[in-house]
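During the reporting period the student researcher (J.K.) took over the structure-prediction task from the postdoctoral fellow and processed the backlog of single-chain submissions. One of the processed entries is reproduced below for the supervisory committee.
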Amino acid sequence: MIGDIDKGIAHSTLASFADDTNICKSIGTSEDVKLLQEDLGRVYGWAKENNMIFNGDKFQLLRSGTNHEILNNTYLVTSDNQTIDTSPHAKCLGVYLSDDGTFKHHIEQTIKKARRIAGWILRTFYSREKDCMLTLWRALVQPVLDYCSQLWSPHMAMDIQALESVQRAYTRQVKAMKELSYWERLKRLGLYSQQRRRERYIITYTWKALEKLVPSPSNINEVEPQFNQRTGRKCVRKIPPSQAPVRIKTLLSSSLPYNGPRIFNCLPRRIRDLTGCSVDSFKTQLDSVLRTVPDEPPVPGYTSLCRAVTNSLPDQVDLQRRDTGLGRSVGTPLL
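J.K. obtained the following structure tokens:
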């Protein structure tokens, strides 16, 4: 029974889902490497007891950190005493984890896969009618771009634009849409931008964590509610460690436990205070709000007083509030 595979694991953390098993440990000294190898040996022993054999060719060792001396001297072996190959990227449940702590490689692979499927659709199906194209997009391409996006949602503009380019190119092929701008095409087709879809998933997951419908990211980065009679329920925002390097702070600030509360807290109170309802009901109420927020990037050349800083949901909501305070509509500002 695979449920007891972690039996006897004393020094490391083991996670298993179906036939995908990962074991990890923080390494500070050579003694930690020995402890990790001991726990790995217990996993080999469990496999032998259950008459199972691990495929050593599928083993991968992912090393991440800033201490190169420890990284270069961390080696593990299989049950046959063969050295496990190190790799800069390791796939875990469909998501590539990289040794630099970013998801850039995963984003690149996601874009390649989505483009291949979109290209296959355009080559295989002759019809360019709206209903046909949207059905194929939602069934075959969109799930690839959405999968686990709460975890790897990018914060760099180049990655955001690269993901957006897949939908941008595909919607141009829809009948009577080629001459329209990308943002006008999204309005006509009833689609969100890819960035807004990822933010929608982040909001939904954060709400689920507050409702205890899913586990929080970790005990350290637990998503916690904060109640205030004036502002309603908000999500406590985490602050990156002050002593951490700038690169680590950047990675943490864009992660789900840090970025999720920021996006969730920008919503109207009636959405944040929703509790005890079904997930579908929450999504319906959320969509009613998202449809009122412009899903279009700021116009170049306008001052920050008039335009949003970025196309992210918090900045667009902040723009709406500032425009309302100035007695202005949400559309293009007066010159």
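The committee noted the following: Confidence is low (pLDDT under 50) at residues 302-306, 328-335.
J.K. will present the remaining backlog at the next meeting.
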